Amino acid sequence: MLGTDNSGLEKVPDDKALANKAWAILKQDMVKNLPKHDLFKTVLLSVAKAFADTNTKEISDEDRSYLVNELTDNILKYHPSIRLNEVPEAIAQGIRGRFGEFYGLSVVTFGRFIEQYLLSDKRTSMVKQLPADDTPRPVPDLQTQFDTARYNAMQALQRKKDGRDLSAIATSVYNFLDRIKLLEFTAGEKYDMMDDAVRELIKELKYKLITAPYAERAEIKRDIDAYTDAITKHTPVNNRQLTLVKMRAKKLALDAFLNNVLLEESDLNLLIECKRDVFVSC
């Protein structure tokens, strides 16, 4: 029988653990296949956290706008295959000296963090664990899918404990917990979360409007108006806007669920394991 570590996750052989993690990370869409504003938002949050974590003096709005837009463009140009949730990980490792010394936080510095992360032994090993692109990739069996989804859920809980952002994995973890019937929100609570999600998106878009290039501002204003009308006049939004609202609402719901797990000191790993049969029989 396998033992457990302090996180509650089962200990597995290194190769299997690496393979599961590689599948969990690299099965996600490459940033080149995502809306550019998703990458922009992730870069913006990651850069802001880097400045805060290193206690580096904040730069002007104009300089920050240039840094974030330039870094976003450089990632899409030079590293289009990186996954969204790898960007904050690469920057977090970089500012902690995992890729050597650095002097100041700039476009060049952040770009080096991304490049060195992708060249690191850990990342290249994950890539090697996956089948070649021209090889048909077998769909993992339900037991493997369950173990991977459980791993992601435990990672979400750890991120919550550490005060780290959940955006990159929130939707998939929410869908998994909902599928195994661990989420018990009422219809009214779900509607409230949708409204809260719209308000959050409006707030973020207003901030983004300040830093966005002139060519993108008209679309941002249209989104703000559409979301504002949805709240005040109950008018429908388009499919893209609705998708973003649902994703944000799921993040809020997951956050509320994890808060409750921490407050009640529940064993999330055990709660999930007890639902294995529900997942496999779906």
Describe, in plain words, how this protein is organized in 3D.
With 282 residues, the protein is mainly α. Helix content is 69%, strand content 0%. α9 crosses α11 (239-263). The longest helix is centred in the C-terminal third of the chain and has 25 residues, at 187-211.
First and last CA, distance: 27 Å
Which band does the percent of strand residues land in? under 5%
Instruction: Supply the number of helical segments.
Output: 13
Shape: globular
| Largest sheet data | none
Number of DSSP strands?
A: 0
Average pLDDT works out at: 85
Class by helix and strand content? mainly alpha
> C-alpha Rg, in Å?
20 Å
Helix % is 55-70%
Uncertain residue segments:
1-13
List the defining traits of the structure above:
69% helix, single chain, 282 residues, mainly alpha, 13 helices
